[in-house]
Amino acid sequence: MYLIIIFVGGIGFVSFIRSNAKAQRQQQLINSYRNKIATAQKVNAQYEDFRRERHDTRNMLLSVQGYIRDHKDKEAEKLLATFLQNDTVEKHYGEIDNALDKIKISGLHNLIKEKSYKIVEKGIPFSFEVNAEIDELPGSEIKTARIIGILMDNAIEATFKQAKPYIQFALLKHSPEVYELVIANSIEQKLNINTALKFEHSTKEGHQGIGLSNVTQLVENDDHYSFSAEVKDKVIMMTCFIQGK
Q: Residue 161 has what DSSP assignment?
């Protein structure tokens, strides 16, 4: 009788363990599906925000285009300043301006100037270098501007609340066909660079903003660009070679 009770009890215990394990696996699957759904919803929301912003940007550019065609430069500048939320007051920061004078490409000159001034005005220690006059770069100016904008914005956001922030910018001409863009900034938390370069990854809360993975996508399959990033001594250094005719 005792053996029968023990045997039946053992079978019941094993059945309970199996049932519990099955329930745990089912719950893990449910949690996994929920996480995937939540991630998909975030991506969809970001995509909708992007579509709205792109629509607004196109409308704004069409308005600016109208002023430019009518040679109304002041009106175009005022509209752009309103959209970009910056002022039109002429500012000068000697060290940056001297280096910027070597960049003869008007669009990139203005982009780098605005980002650099923002760094200085936020009180972030900043190193800026351009080693030679640059009046032309290989590749697409739009793509180059996007790369520079993403990397500088990331550096500003990453260092804004740091106790000891630092940002470095360098655009170096090695030859008429080879240029090197270097943007580095201090970091306080550990960063897995391989994870940071993966598609759709962002270290920002809620995954808002644009991560390094977007730069890797921009340069992918384009022989004019090669991008790499490394972390050393609490500094992340991002290097993009721009090369070719």
A: T
Angstrom CA distances, 91 to 97, 105, 116, stand at 10, 19, 12
Strand pairing partners for 205? none
DSSP assignment string, 103-137: B--HHHHHHHHHHHHHHHHTT--EEEEE-S-BS--
CA distance 55 to 47: 12
The whole-angstrom separation of Cα 104 and Cα 14 is: 77
Q: What is the pLDDT of residues 161-196, one digit of tens each?
A: 888 999 999 999 999 999 999 999 998 877 777 766
Question: Are the C-beta atoms of 220 and 214 separated by less than 8 Å?
Answer: no
The rounded distance, in Å, linking the Cα atoms of 160 and 185 is 11
> Do 147 and 225 contact (CB within 8 A), yes or no?
yes
Task: Note whether 126 and 116 are within 8 A (CB).
Answer: yes
Percent of the chain past pLDDT 90, that is, above it, reads 33
Amino acid at 44: N
| 243 and 177 Cβ atoms separated by less than 8 Å | yes
Q: Tally Cβ neighbours within 10 Å of residue 21.
A: 10
Question: Measured in whole angstroms, how far is the alpha carbon of residue 67 from the centre of its chain?
Answer: 32
Give 69-88 pLDDT, tens digit per residue. Answer: 888 888 877 777 777 666 54
pTM for the predicted model, two decimal places: 0.67
